[in-house]
Amino acid sequence: MQKSDCKMYRNLLSIIIGLFSAFLIVLLLESLLPLLFGIQSLKEAGDPKAIEQYLITLPLGLLILLALTYGIAAFIGTYVSVLISNTPKSGLSTTAIFLIVVIVNFLSFHHPLWMVMLGSLGTLIGGFAGTKTRSKTIL
Question: Cα torsion at 7, 12, 14, 18 (round to 10°)?
Answer without folding.
Answer: 160
